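From the pipeline queue, job 12 of 40. The input is one protein chain; the requested action is below.

Action: predict structure.
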Amino acid sequence: MSKFSYLSCPNPKEQHYKSFVDIFRERTESTPDKEIFIHRLPDGGRKALTYKELSDKATKLAKYLVSKGISVGDSFAIMGANSLEWVIGEVAIFMTGAVAVQCQGSCEEFNETVLLLKSTQCKAILLDPNNDPRYLSEMSKFFQEKETQIRDPETPRVVLLSKPVGVDLPFIGDILSEEEDSKVLLPVVQPESSAVIFTTSGSSGIPKMVEFTHFALTNSPIGNFFTTENDITFSDRPFTWLGGTPIYSLAGGYARVFTDPKIILQEEKIQTVWEILKEEKCTVATLFPYALKDMLDNAEEILATGYKPTSIATGGQIPGSHLNAIAGKFCERIYSVYGSTEVGLATRVFLTAETAVGNVGNMVPGYEVKIIGDGNTTLERGQIGDIVLRSPWMLKGYRNSPEMNKDSFLEGGWFRTSDIGIITEDGKFFMKGKSADVIRRGTKKIMYSAVEIAMNNFPGVKEVVVVALPDARLLEEVCACVIFEDDVSIPEHELRKLCLDKLGDNVTGDSPTFYLTFKTFPRLGNGKIDRITIKKEAMEILKLC
């Protein structure tokens, strides 16, 4: 056995030298009538697309875009809520040979949309617009002047994914109702060509642009390692995320059911989501840890439906041991994945009563991992260090960011994940947290995740978020923000004792110094905890600002 902190999983499958467009056309030819995307609407209705319907609509839209000057290699933004029109639009972008720039969220002000288009250097945009009257007015003026050539001819073109009242701009519904132009030819897309850019938040306000090739998309194991063609999957994750993108469903051939992501953010809606899973006969459901907690809190009602999916997939944070109770009760098995936008899903672990907290399981075929220390040297097993990953289908790089690429990639193509982990002497891989998620209390370094995991297992505690608060003497202090179970209230002195027993004191140990009670935690639009807002609220409560 190697003494070094290194693991790999060879890929047994033959790699395809094909573009996403090639794979999509093959799927359409073999299963033209298969429903591949199902949109469940707030009123209980459903809309669906078969491969054939999607192919016909995307081809028509792609020819329209080519006729308007879109060509191979152009950056083409797509922004808006999950919808069937969004899927049609992205496939059409791929067919033109352009690069789909998936822009997260929606801009409150139209000038934010303009800045986004400029920063990503997009030639066009498929847009589901904000319905604010001022936004619509500024949007209409900006793009209509393009059509009359009053504005700079470099102004991006637009196609709307939905049609607000009173707005006269190209709309996907109108384009799809017209006759297809048979004279327009679509290009042959090369496998090495860039296919998609996932935008992530940047500290400077300019998004990081994570670029992938067609070859990476068509050979990634995400499309067939976690699911099969016979599965019906549910995921409400935004299409703009790598973890929510429609690309892998289309390439892998498995149906995808989706809803508005805001629905599952409401605790009382977990039963609505469960009914959707039952009605659509979903075999695999992707649910965030907070939704799984809601399931446990509403177990009686959910179990009364008599429905269980085969698998539940979760991720986004280190799962607590309480989630191990889900397997066998709500589904046949539950697994957690580890990865990132840049590298994809790199590991999978099935959660059982024996699963140790932080164990991320086995590598996905085609991935390698190692733990490095100072000087980028590979550490021996049993030592904590920085996690670096490598695979043939991770990001090509950050577009237009040579300095970021220089800082992120090591010799040999290894990518810095910004995570901290350990490979044990017996070859188990543990993720311990983000390298940035460390509170420096004096000379003591404390991991957010370690405190949160410990406190989440205390009886009566529903959820814990740990934040760092400024301290004039120690630089930072640890504050635990706690939500208790209904009708439970644990006095602060009891919490302190529980932490003392589990984490040590707040001098040489990891225990928090401050404890605050919350009723709910603010969340971002993607469902993740809004730690910045929680920290601000904690500082206000403690009068530290």
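Job complete. The chain has 16 helices and 26 strands.
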